Amino acid sequence: MVSRYFIGGVVVYRKEIISYIICIFLVFLACLLHALDYFINLNFPVHAIIFALYSFVIVLWMNNMKNRVLRSAIVARFKLIGFLLISYLLVRTLKYLILIENEDAVRFIRYLYLVFPLVLTQLIFLTSLHVGKSERENINKYWSLLWIPTLIASLLIITNNLHGLLFSLDPNAKSLQMYGPVFYFVVFYIGLLTIINIAFTMIYSYKNRYLSSVKLPISIIIIWGIYTFLYMTGWDKFEYFKIFFKSAEFNILMVMLFIESLVFKRLLPSNRGYELFLSLSSLNIGIMDSNGQMIYRPKIYENIDSSLVCRALYNPILIDENTLLESAKINGGISFYFVDLTDFNQLKRKLMNMSEDMLNENELLKAKNSLKKNMIKVEEQNQIREHIHTKLQPQFDILNDIFMNLPEDEDLFETKLKHACFLDVYIKRYSNLFLLTKNKSTLNLSELKLAFCESLDYLSLTGVKTKIDWEEYTSYDKDFCISLYEIFQNALEFYMPGISSISISFFMKNKKPQLIIKITGAKEKSFLYDLDDNYQQNGILISEDITKDEIKLVISLERSKL
């Protein structure tokens, strides 16, 4: 089993912790080399060694991001950032090892010191635009226009020898007199992007009432800004800190730490989070794969024997006096959980140890009420299970038929399994929506969007092109929301196989919610004939427009039901 730990409510795997420790050690080693070289003047190429140390740290970070971030475009941008960071450090290293005696080269490298942070800030800003978006959502293409001032500023920087607008060409200039208007524009532009970066991050966290998630990335930006300010003003006491952290190295660390904080706090879409849900759940759930390997261990009985889990598939097993083990098959393995019988056994012992002549009417009433509460809870759980089973029976039947008749042909086998995965995610998401709204009258539309997105993700595995456009994130009537998901699933199952693409749009029209489903490639037939009449009785309007190229379904709510 892969070891995982919870740090600040976030799941961190052991291999990630090891990489963090290695990176911290390498950075500490680089700081030590800087200090030794400053005080005793080491007789070997310190800058080359430091370049190798930081390059290894950057490569570790890039590999870490590749394994954790879901969106391929963001991973590609992180690779570009990593390449620029290594190039940034390489330029600094060449300056001290080879070009230190060449004044023109040193001056040009000094200009490049400003180009790299400028471009890196631009890339970080574009990355922050993905905060709060799923791996399927794109940012507005017009944000790319920000590359125009970035490239113009970069051109002015590297041509400073011609105009002196970046750094003063006067060799006697000191402190703030050294900087020209282009320098201040670049600093202002970087600061502006940073402020907008913070704003976008905080807006998402404010909407989701999760402001604690932005404390870490914003703290890193503040530290970065303090370092830049002290570096520009040339404060004497700050020179001691610069002995350990040169500007290039500190900028590199801040870039990696800021991006790491966005991924660590799940502000960017990553493959983390399900373990947190299970750890916070009051249910002692465990997951075992089909080979008997534990994928997730419950909070109690962590070393449960896999053979007991398999036996519990047929009949629940009493582990001890107060614990009952139950198992159920899931896609790819077995889920098992422990039922706590402590309260039930305590109540039973209390009734058995009390003689009839010592029980008064109040004690009998308390025992009766306690038992009644337990029975109500059991009945409620049975009702939930029965409702979900009834609603999802068609999907369960299809899944059972798929697994009972798996073909031997590899291509057909893969097609059947992809279809099973599509049904399985609907079962999971429908159950989740029902449980979320069990004691509520409304459902947050962001949860409904997640259900649609995950179904489309699994549908895309079968080769179907998918697209979703979602404009509303408020809360709405739970029955209407769940009905939308049911109609969406029924429509897909009705027109499968043969669908080549599907497009989903959800928005408000005349203050009425409206869902539009566009399907291409499917056989031309009416979906409304097989539809349950209960939808119309509940005020849900469904219209269809069938053409040769496209089938369009429009689902909305009658105004009288608003």
TrEMBL record:
The chain crosses the membrane at residues 17-36, 42-62, 74-91, 111-131, 143-162, 182-204, 216-234. Residues 348-381 form a coiled coil. It comes from the Bacteria. The keyword Transmembrane applies. Keywords: Coiled coil, Membrane, Transmembrane, Transmembrane helix. The keyword Translocase does not apply. This is Histidine kinase N-terminal 7TM region domain-containing protein. The lineage of its organism: Bacteria, Bacillati, Bacillota, Tissierellia, Tissierellales.
